[in-house]
Protein: Signal peptidase I
Organism: Neolewinella lacunae
Amino acid sequence: MTWLTWVLLLGYIALSFALYRLFPKAGKAASAALIPGYNMWIVAELVGRKPWHALWLLIPYLNVFIFAGLMVDLARSFGRFSFGEHVLAVITSWGYFGWLGAKPEVRYNGPILEVERAYRQELAAAEKTKEKREINKVHAAYPQFQKPFYQDWAEAAIFAIFAAAFIRLLLIESYIIPTPSMEGNLNVGDFLFVSKIHYGLRLPETLLMIPLAHNRAPLVGGESYIEGAELPYRRLPALEAIDRYDPVVFNVPAGDSVYVTPARTYYPHDVRTGFLPANVARAVESGQLELITRPRDKRDHYVKRAIGLPGEVLEIKDRQVFIDGQPIADPENVQYFYKVTFSTPPNRSKWSDMGISSPPGGDDVYQENGNLFIIRLNQAQIDWLKGNDPQATFEPVDQSGDKGIRFYPHNERYFGEMQVDNYGPVKIPARGMTIKLDERTHALYWRAIKVYEENPSYTMLNGQFFLDNQPITEYTFQQDYYWMMGDNRHNSEDSRIWGFVPEDHILGKPLFVWFSIKEGNLFNGINWHRIGRNASKQGGR
């Protein structure tokens, strides 16, 4: 068992002994407190709930909220109504109820929820009379429910945080598109609701964290969680499978180790391949910029489109994607770099309405000189620009000079010809798929084997391969993997840069755009036409 399991187990045992002293005050046998499970059955009864309410404690994560409610109501049933004591009842329940049981003056006042229901019924009847005297009489009969305003506010705020955290952890999470990698379909400044249950709910792993924060603490900076208190990976059954062209939100697999700067996050492969700004490279080399490790569920969220599925062979030739040797359709509104020469200076005031970002809101537009621009465009945007300037010319930008070590698997010996528009072929791992190990397959799959499948002992030595100190010649994958790409093909950091996405990194399915601001800046206005847009419908043409 992990240390956290031991802490929870010992805490429950200590709480049972605390209830041993408390139960007799409520007319219950002390020995009932020492029967695992049954003691919580009694607690539910004492606070005025149906005893079977305790069964909710068996459901992971929901049990945290159920336990907190039971402990607060138990304290109130013994006449303890201060906010501070309620906090102690939840956080240090074993100590608090042990202390309460030891106080001879403490009495059981009956099931608090039944008393509270009676109070609300009498108050509602008094309010119908509209007689202030009758209302005051009810308040006087139930002084325990007359709280100072700050306690009402604090309890409401805590309830709201608990409810929001529960929804965010287990059902739906809001996500903002920060970069233009999916431009054309999902734009910078789009706020999405993401379902966590469609592809199978991945149960939370990191327990000690700031509620409602992902991996960075708001305002103060730094990481928003404490490592060392993680539960093992578990996923509930999926409502649907990931299909080709589905947009998917996931934890970026390369994000297990990161260098965080105010501008963006960098990964170790950025350091190894030299793709760092000079000031960041100096900070890394000097040790000024610390390498941060992150658990799986606290790695950065990315949204990309599933292009390659488990077991398929993916290849890109001159921008055309092939799956198992057959060309597939591009997603709708896929974008590429173009050199655009206008016949006259263009009117750029309406460009952002067409999703063509212009500085300072985005980096999709570069003015080279005069009427020559470098712009990332989809076909609809090209047609629109041509409609405004029929003499304008559009020339695809040659990306062949950018190749080799920058691209996954960052190995020039075997994969030195990898490019953004010419990539592969690579076979995407699938659960149960077995590969023969050699230096080339090792270069392509070693990270999946060693890191994603948690085989730290896997290594290559003098051309031989070892796992758990035993020589091996092949390896069978334990989970499915996906190939994710952005629709903005020349401005997307995706599987071409950091490789396969393991199934255990999949977070959820984008549902719809609930809010959208122009170019990611509220001062630029609101994209009213994008609100309510289906975020998961766009696919191949």
The radius of gyration is 29 Å. The chain has a mean pLDDT of 88. The longest strand covers residues 506-516. Residues 1-151+163-170 form one domain.
